[in-house]
Specification:
The complex is a heterotrimer. Chain A is mainly α. Chain A has 14 helices and no strands. Chain A has helices at residues 4-30, 35-58, 65-72, 74-106, 113-157, 183-188, 190-193, 198-201, 210-235, 237-240, 246-252, 265-295, 300-316, 321-363. Chain B has two domains: 24-209, no CATH class; 216-351, GMP Synthetase, Chain A, domain 3. Classes of the chains: A mainly alpha, B alpha/beta, C alpha+beta. The interface between A and C is medium-sized, with 34 and 29 residues.
């Protein structure tokens, strides 16, 4: 049975949670002008790895990547899977710690940081435990129904104070490509490479067409552009590069007279927190899959609490935002490795498999 | 059974952890803050509406400190409610402070997220203690006048500049944008009166505009609907729509801006019975003269309040743009062409 | 006969036991039954008529006799259970043949009447009642189709209860039907008399906060459910149809909507959705805005809320819990009050209590509005069992909002959504729209 809609919304949701917080800072830091080139480069990179990934998966009907890799050669499988496992655990820790910090800044709360981190861990743990993958996919549709509307509303009104002159100059020759040498650009790829691995774990549960994913990514492209361009257009590049969270700041400057709320960033932040919790739940499920299928079949009743505990303790050990930033930077190398090696290995295995099948068919 | 007891215990312990929440009626919510700077010390005035059965007006509290946060802390320490700057709408600074520079206070406001970036900056022409004393008149209103004065849906007029903190922040860092701040003082028959606006370059006040010039600044900026212009000795017209087309070019290495301003007005009042054609020509002459005055002022002060540099972003490289205020702006030639159309003459006919 | 003697001793103390001899020509028949379940004069008349005709026409009496009903073996337990089922037992004294005859029954329920718990605006109003036969009559008249299948199960060891399972053969999901029949058959000896025991037969979790079945009193709702591929159970003496599985669309969709033009159908469903969100969010939003996050509101609103909370001596969460608690007590008390004093007490409770508690400065008057809004919108969803779920969920959101403000409100919503996403009834997930399909 085709679950195109559910998989597509899951894909969109895991990415939306990551876009509006740290992605604009990194892109604005990496270049001075013509930011759309940076965004487009990142987006094309993302499309490329997804294309290769899905093509490789289409050679194996209904098997997820752990099965595919394990069936070939256990050692080679772990060369690919161990970095993936490490990467997933790393981004869970980073996501929880960074989001807790952002929430503490944004909501002016007196709430201690460990409560926020616990909240960001327990609720996704509950989602994964209670719903399993079927529940996760259905939940994405329910979330999109409830929370996408506030996000779209805020994105539309954030154009209130825009000065279109900041758009120019649009193209500055070879200087436009200067971002490729700046480390912040590679840090910004976090927003692209955070969620694509999920697609490899799904085929054993849900059948879906790759076309649904491509349409979904087309929906995401405006979000990437808006999150970078609205701060640049409102504030100018010089001012925007001073801010830690440029998009959130711009949302704070919007004045809507007819609404009973003074600050509408409440809508945006709350919806993004929901999406972020969903992202963490999906990542926990992927880690669960790898451990249960690759190592030993431990019951989720023990595995999920232990993952939560370990992540929580690691997060408690990170003292400040500078460490978080440094961890993000160190993660870049691993991210590029995982983002390139995993799809390519699946694709090559797929080609070999298809060739073998064709040979067998010709022989019989 | 044991499971139920466990759940009950968990919920009761959760209830006990409501982290030092202070309810809304135990917080003081100031709507206006005044900051004055004398010899290294900041003096902060907070304008707090009183929460009571009847509208009892406002309470003005002041304190001194080395930095603004320490002064506010001092007030919060002595007040019976907790001071919360969440609803601050207006920050009043005195002229000395504005001339010295608003950069520090803007950065500290933007950094702490306690104050909303939509707060307005306002310059006051008289000493702040006298100003706050005068506006705190319980017989004459409920104390919210300073808040309503600047609200677009109550007391705001196009003769008053409107500049939130984030625009000041932008102007401090931007190469091509400067702002104007409204200047007010306590009034004779009204609580507050406006006396023009101050030109801010990189956060420092470098000049003044009077009310008429501020209106035209708002016209050029697009903020001017319902503003009224008095044409000398002939009539008063009200602007109903304004539209600008700009074209930038480089002539002989010097930047040149050709602007066309289209104004549509309706006639409010006339002295005698002038013809519509004469009103139009007079209006154009008047506007041209006032705008020329403004341009001379800002070019002398190197303050690009109209954002003219924005139009040249395509022609200049980034490093050249960084020199806009000092190098290119004094040489800008602005050719302004104003066309006014009188849309109607109201209920009475005019020759 | 020895068997008849045993039966007679078993029923000797029962006041409604009847044991009569019927004499026809040269044959003697013993007729026994319970007169509370059987209309004896008419039944005996019916039996005597057929036997007389037979003897007049010189037909073989025993053959006609066995043709009157079903021949059953002469066992005590079988005879007793048939008598308790309301059948008339006739025994031919000479040959010992026992025949169980379907009699003219005594009416044992109210006639088909208006529904008690469901109202509708434009549709039919004949409701299911406690008698299984009238329920089946209503269902068959509503759904005249050869696709409709009905299966009977008799559950219980000590007390026998009949359960009828109805479904449309071509539309039902196979996995659902298999699960259901397997669970019913494996628990066939469990006594069931109420919904809780039926739920335990079907192995629904005891801690489930959302109802796994819907109950409908109107046959058109049952028909719609059958056409959507769901299963209906009728249990004896329960005056409603039990529809399995329940889906989230059951909160918003009722068959009565379809009697209006489509635009209004859509608008009504949107209204129910708004009601659901209101009842969940509004009490928590009040507590969050007043206690934890006052910066969310505009200044004028914040100022007037602060004014309305002057002199209230305790924090907002206690205030909200107090007033919500009183509302819950009122709602529970209304069920028990007799109809003669009910309305007066409600009026006193609602108006006087509401006004007095504000004047005594125990709660702020904004909270009264909030609680009234929450209570009214609670009733907007379809199905009163669903409104119980909502009543509980709003407390979860209230507690989380008191702890963490607006963020807690969102976390509560996420938890509820996650909980709904994971519920499965008989293998069918809860979060589906119209047709239940297994995973």
């Amino acid at each position: 049975m085709s679950k195109n809609l559910q998989v597509s919304t899951t894909y969109i949701m895991t990415h939306l949670g990551l876009i509006f917080f740290l992605y604009p800072t990194d892109v604005i830091e990496s270049t001075n002008e013509a930011h759309w080139v940076t965004v487009l480069f990142g987006f094309l990179f993302h499309l490329l790895i997804i294309f290769v990934y899905l093509k490789g998966l289409s050679y194996f009907q209904g098997q997820n990547i752990v099965h595919i890799l394990m069936n070939k050669n256990k050692l080679a499988a772990w060369v690919v899977l161990l970095p993936v496992l490490l990467y997933l655990s790393w981004i869970i820790v980073l996501a929880v710690r960074a989001f807790a910090e952002v929430l503490s800044i944004a909501f002016l709360s007196n709430t201690p940081l460990w409560t926020l981190m616990l909240l960001l861990l327990i609720i996704p743990g509950f989602i994964t435990f209670h719903g399993k993958i079927g529940g996760l996919l259905r939940l994405s549709v329910l979330f999109s129904f409830l929370f996408v509307l506030p996000v779209v509303f805020v994105m539309a009104t954030s154009f209130q104070n825009v000065d279109w002159h900041y758009l120019f100059p649009l193209w500055t020759g070879h200087r436009s490509l200067i971002f490729l040498t700046h480390p912040s650009f590679y840090k910004s790829l976090f927003a692209y490479a955070g969620g694509f691995l999920l697609l490899g774990f799904l085929p054993s549960y849900a059948k879906f067409k790759p076309k649904a994913i491509y349409w979904g990514s087309l929906v995401l492209l405006p979000a990437y552009l808006i999150s970078v361009y609205v701060p640049v257009l409102t504030l100018g590049e010089e001012t925007a590069s001073q801010l830690q969270f440029p998009y959130l700041f711009v949302v704070d400057t919007i004045a809507i007279n007819w609404l009973m709320f003074d600050r509408i960033n409440v809508f945006l932040l709350l919806s993004l927190v929901a999406f972020c919790m969903f992202f963490i739940a999906v990542t926990i499920w992927q880690i669960l899959c790898i451990i249960r299928l690759g190592v030993k079949d431990i019951s989720p009743n023990y595995l999920i609490p232990s993952i939560i505990m370990i992540t929580f303790i690691i997060c408690l050990c990170i003292p400040d935002w500078k460490t978080v930033d440094r961890l993000f930077q160190w993660n870049t190398a691993l991210r590029i490795y995982v983002a390139t090696v995993t799809p390519i290995s699946i694709w090559t295995l797929g080609r070999l498999h298809a060739k073998k099948m064709k040979n067998e068919l010709n022989n019989t | 059974m044991k499971l139920r007891i466990l759940i009950g215990v968990i919920f009761t312990t959760l209830l006990s952890g409501c982290w030092d929440n202070k309810d809304i009626n135990h917080r003081a919510l100031p709507i206006a803050m005044g900051i004055s700077y004398q010899q290294g010390d900041y003096e902060v005035f907070l304008d707090i509406p009183k929460v009571s059965e009847k509208n009892e007006g406002i309470q003005v509290i002041s304190a001194k400190g080395n930095t603004i946060s320490s002064a506010i802390d001092h007030i919060s320490m002595n007040l019976e409610d907790q001071v919360d700057l969440l609803h601050l709408k207006v920050i009043v600074v005195d002229k000395a402070f504005a001339t010295r520079g608003l950069e520090e206070i803007t950065s500290s406001i933007i950094r702490s997220r306690h104050v909303s970036p939509k707060t307005m900056f306002v310059i006051c022409d008289e000493p702040l203690d006298r100003f706050f004393e005068r506006i705190n008149n319980p017989l004459n209103g409920d104390g919210n006048e300073i808040y309503d004065f600047f609200q677009k849906n109550s007391g705001w007029n196009p003769e008053i500049a409107y500049t939130p903190v984030w625009k000041v922040f932008r102007s401090i860092h931007s190469y091509t944008n400067d702002v104007v701040l409204p200047i007010i003082q306590s009034g004779h028959s009204t609580t507050i009166q406006s006396v023009g606006s101050g030109i801010l370059k990189n956060g420092r006040m470098v000049g003044r505009l009077n009310n008429e010039q501020t209106l035209l600044y708002n016209v050029f900026d697009g903020n001017s609907l319902q503003g009224k212009i008095e044409v000398m000795g002939k009539s008063t017209v009200q602007i109903v729509s304004s539209h600008i087309r700009n074209h930038s070019s480089f002539v002989n290495q010097k930047p040149e801006l050709n602007s066309k301003l289209y104004l549509k007005v309706v006639i409010m009042d006339t002295v005698g019975s002038p013809s519509t054609a004469s009103i139009e020509t007079e209006l154009q002459v008047l506007l041209q003269r006032v705008l020329d005055q403004i341009f001379i002022k800002i070019q002398r002060a190197n303050a690009d309040i109209f954002g003219i540099g924005q139009h040249f972003r395509d022609d200049l490289t980034r490093s050249e743009l960084a020199q806009w205020r000092t190098q290119y702006f004094p040489q800008v030639k602005i050719k302004l062409d104003i066309q006014t159309v009188i849309r109607n003459t109201g209920n009475l006919k005019l020759p | 006969m020895a068997v008849m003697d045993e039966v007679r001793t078993h029923f000797s103390s029962h006041p409604d036991y009847v044991n009569q001899q019927l004499q026809l020509a040269s044959e003697t028949f013993t007729i026994t039954g319970l007169k509370s379940l059987i209309n004896f004069p008419q039944t005996i008349h019916m039996v005597r008529e057929s036997l007389l005709t037979a003897s007049i026409n010189r037909l073989e009496l025993t053959q006609v006799f066995t043709g009157l009903g079903q021949t059953i073996p002469a066992e005590t337990n079988r005879l007793i259970s048939d008598i308790l089922d309301g059948m008339l037992i006739a025994v031919h004294d000479a040959s010992g043949l026992c025949v169980s005859i379907y009699p003219v029954p005594q009416p044992n329920s109210r006639p088909i009447s208006l529904p008690v718990m469901e109202n509708n605006v434009g549709g039919g109003n004949s409701a299911f009642n406690e008698n299984l036969n009238s329920n089946m009559v209503l269902l068959r008249s509503q759904l005249n189709s050869s696709d409709l299948q009905m299966k009977t199960y008799i559950l219980g060891k000590l007390v026998k209860t009949k359960v009828i399972v109805c479904y449309m053969d071509s539309l039902i999901d196979e996995q659902l039907l298999d699960n259901l029949t397997q669970k019913l058959e494996s628990n066939i000896t469990t006594d069931i008399s109420n919904m809780k025991e039926l739920s335990s037969v079907l192995e629904f979790s005891k801690f489930s906060l959302v109802t796994h079945y819907m109950t409908y009193e109107l046959p058109q709702n049952a028909e719609k459910a059958l056409k959507n591929g769901k299963v209906i159970l009728f249990q004896e003496r329960l005056p409603f149809a039990i529809v399995l599985p329940s889906l989230i669309s059951d909160l918003f969709v009722t068959e009565d909507d379809m009697n209006h033009p489509p635009v209004y159908t859509w608008l009504l469903r949107c209204l129910r959705l708004i009601g659901l969100l209101t009842t969940l969010i509004v009490p928590g939003l009040y507590v969050a805005i007043v206690s934890v996050n006052p910066d969310v509101l505009r200044f004028e609103l914040a100022h007037s809320i602060a004014r309305s909370r002057l002199d209230v001596p305790y924090p907002a969460i206690i205030e909200a819990l107090l007033l919500l608690g009183i509302m819950e007590l009122i709602m529970e008390a209304i069920i028990r009050l007799p109809s003669s004093i009910g309305p007066t007490v409600t009026m006193v409770g609602g108006i006087v209590l509401g006004q007095a508690v504000v004047d005594a400065k125990l709660v702020s008057n904004l909270l009264i509005i909030v609680v009234a809004a929450a209570t009214i919108s609670n009733a907007v969803v379809v199905g009163f069992r669903n409104s119980y779920s909502l009543r509980l969920f709003k407390y979860l959101l209230l507690f989380l909002a008191a702890l963490l403000g607006v963020l807690g409100l969102l976390s509560g919503l996420v938890i509820i959504c996650a909980y709904l996403a994971g519920i499965r009834t008989l293998g069918v997930p809860f979060l589906q729209l119209i047709r239940p399909k297994g995973e």
